[in-house]
Amino acid sequence: MDFTVAIRTYNRVQYIPNLLEQLKAQIEVDQINWEIIIIDNNSTDNTAEIIKNYQDNWDKSYPLKYILETKQGGFYARKRGIKEAKADLIGFLDDDNLPALNWVKQAYLFAQEHPQAGAFGSKIIGEFEGEIPENIEEIAAFFPIITWPETVCFNSSKHKGLLPPGAGLVINKKVWLENVPEFLTLQGPVGDKLERKGEDTEALIYIQRAGWQIWYNSEMVIHHLIGKKRLEKEYLLNFCRGIGMSRFYTRKLRYNSGQFLLISPIYLINDLRKLVFYWLKYRKVIPKDVVRSAKMEFLKASFYGYMTFFCKTYK
């Protein structure tokens, strides 16, 4: 098996048909031996029924498999996909992703051309339902949306500290199993809860620390469908708070304990500076501006993570 597409899903059956149709329509894949696995992270809707209907009428040479993972958490769904995949190269899609018609081909080719890549991400184009706030670009990377025109390696000094998001991420299975711990501190979304986001970043840091390259491939394109709910204030605040809280831990992973003790005060001061300046600049509009409220929540959560660590360490 050359390539596995692993899709994790939870209670979003409305997206599954379009995603599967897009995968059925992939072009220039005749020479690629590949498969599709759907990991149902214990959905309570009719996800299983819809996929069974597709399986009964599946007329493609590449198989469509259904796996139920009852342990909820984005990391556990991804971990199960890795376990079940028959290929050494695994491309992850979320249920609200629509890959371009050449996504499988481009992913496979990139892996052949970059044997030192432990993982590489896709260009992600946001497709919003409903009205889009005019200042959405302030938090676009959190959704995630990434539309850089050029392919880049995150190991370079220019992009140090950055990593691709999990949507559209392709990994080398052997590299993952050898370098990513059996259990991560950040478990990703658990059902509808967003407090433990950052699991993909945590995993990629372990891979990068082991000496493997991490890339962004601009030729691999997916469209990310972003529903109206995700632009509602309550959701956005929880979403950005979860990302902010995980930031402390993913930064900490990049250093040994001694290094982090020295650098943590710098992070603390810098996060406080960003928090204060942002509040001073937008304090009058934050209560009524959903995007700036969410960005403020991210900055507060990021600072809180460092402040908690700082107080425990230097008390």
Describe this structure as you would to a colleague.
There is one protein chain. The mean pLDDT is 92. The chain is globular, with a radius of gyration of 20 Å. α2 links the parallel β2 (34-40) and β3. It is α/β, with parallel strands linked by helices and 315 residues long. α7 (233-252) runs parallel beside α9 (290-314) and α8 (257-282) packs antiparallel against α9. It has 9 helices and 9 strands. Strands 1, 2, 3, 4, 5, 6, 7, 8 and 9 form a 9-stranded mixed β-sheet that branches. The protein folds into 2 domains: 3-231, Alpha-Beta Complex (Spore Coat Polysaccharide Biosynthesis Protein SpsA, Chain A), CATH 3.90.550.10; 235-314. It has helices at 16-24, 47-56, 74-84, 103-113, 173-179, 199-209, 233-252, 257-282, 290-314; strands spanning 3-9, 34-40, 64-68, 89-94, 97-99, 117-128, 152-153, 170-172, 213-226.
Q: What characteristics describe this protein?
A:
315 residues; alpha/beta; Spore Coat Polysaccharide Biosynthesis Protein SpsA, Chain A; 2 domains; nine-stranded mixed beta sheet; 9 helices; 9 strands; globular
